[in-house]
Known about the structure:
It is a single chain. The chain is mainly beta. The chain is 14% helix and 65% strand. It is built from 1 helix and 7 strands. Strands 1-2-3-7-6-5-4 form a 7-stranded antiparallel beta sheet, with no helix packed on it. A hairpin with a 4-residue loop joins strand 6 (44-59) and strand 7 (64-77). The longest helix has 13 residues, at 81-93. The chain is globular and about 25 Å long.
Amino acid sequence: xxxxxxxxxxHQLALMGREKLQVDGVRNVGSFDRDEVVLETEMGVLIIKxxxxxxxxxNLDQGKVVIQGKVQSLVYAEEDLAxxxxxFFGKLLx
Length: 94
């Protein structure tokens, strides 16, 4: 489990058996579908890829998200959600 403090906020990841992921320190949900979930966290944009992903629990007031499904990768992106969205729509409009 990873634990980092940013100001007074706490960011944690807990992966149970690759089938349940609990994330604390979530600010916003960028997008989600069965294959990918994009979260803005206290430590940057987190991209979760897998199969049959769905949100079991979402509470942005508390900064908590629980995702069920087969988790295949967890990656922190260098860009923020605005930059990521711009890149996606830029590709879509070309």
